Amino acid sequence: MSGNALPTTADLLATAMVVRLPMRTRFRGLTVRETMVFAGPAGWGEFGPFVEYDDDEASAWLAAGIEAAYQGPPPRVRNVIAVNATVPAVPALEVAGILARYPGASTAKVKVAEPGQTLDDDVARVAAARAGVARVRVDANGKWTVAEAIRAIRAIGEVEYVEQPCATVEELAEVRRAVDVPIAADESIRKAADPYRVVAADAADVAIVKVAPLGGMRATLEIADSIGLPVVVSSALDSAVGIAAGVAAAAALPTLDHACGLGTGALFGADVAVPFLPTEGAVTTRWFGPEHIIDRSGVPLADGPREQWWRDRLVRCHALLSARGPGRGRD
Ligand SMILES: O=C(O)CCC(=O)c1ccccc1C(=O)O
Ligand SMILES: [Mg+2]
């Protein structure tokens, strides 16, 4: 909130809507994405921490939503953001159908190391993606041991980078020393008490940054500015409102050399607004200002108990933010 007072919970809840967005393809174990959006004087903000997150982790997401609704986007230096196709851990035969939702994409990010699947499944999925795009990056979400990562990376072959092959910073550093492909850090930044430890440990070549878990667009820009690594701005499987903040952060970066992971609107079967669907491999900046009206009859709303659960969660996270005082959401 960079010094601004927090809005009250009554302010936030007055316009809050809890939605259940159907996924076209299962992603991160989800077939429905529940999230909350609310409006403030600068436009719409999103509060959508995954349901299993505790309040401490979730409160950074609230800071991000409040920043969007009460401060709006930072000044931008570009309007068009190249995005990767996001390929969930689907059978190889389904990859072409996913890529078709990303017309013109030259990069695909392929999920690997899905529990219950094999390295052969990963190799086949990556091969199918290579058949459709020029460049492939993979994301293991920390699921490999060091030995598994080294073996898998050798089997998968050349990729733009491997995102979060293992869970810890030390393991990332060990894998990075053992292989030639670049390593990207995601969870080691967005879930870490100290996002800069990946640099001190020589654990990554690329920093994945996400507006919601990092506590907002400005907090994301600050990390991007000081981390000393090329960044990729990615989504947190946000609705169009949260994606607008990700796109705004990407649009404000002084340099941006990699496709961003902001095309996940293509994975939803419904959204709170016209989704950010990539055309020619890119999305274009758009802001849902205070004048924007979300048509409640056009969005799948949560039922009473789920809506109350989210409202209570917002109140608890708001208490954590106000106890913490102004400053970066994650401090
Ligand atoms: O980066 C992308 O292409 C999409 C975003 C994505 O993969 C993601 C979305 C929600 C939660 C976690 C992740 C992740 O990068 O691990
Ligand atoms: Mg990731």
From TrEMBL:
Mg(2+) binds at residues 139, 163, 186. It comes from the Bacteria. Its cofactor is a divalent metal cation. Pfam families: Enolase_like_N (PF18374), MR_MLE_C (PF13378). The active site is at 111 (proton donor), 210 (proton acceptor). It catalyses: (1R,6R)-6-hydroxy-2-succinyl-cyclohexa-2,4-diene-1-carboxylate = 2-succinylbenzoate + H2O. Keywords: Lyase, Magnesium, Menaquinone biosynthesis, Metal-binding. Its EC number is 4.2.1.113. Gene3D superfamilies: Enolase-like C-terminal domain. Pathway: Quinol/quinone metabolism; menaquinone biosynthesis; Quinol/quinone metabolism; 1,4-dihydroxy-2-naphthoate biosynthesis; 1,4-dihydroxy-2-naphthoate from chorismate: step 4/7. Residues 91-182 form the Mandelate racemase/muconate lactonizing enzyme C-terminal domain. Converts 2-succinyl-6-hydroxy-2,4-cyclohexadiene-1-carboxylate (SHCHC) to 2-succinylbenzoate (OSB). This is o-succinylbenzoate synthase. It comes from Gordonia hankookensis. The gene is menC.
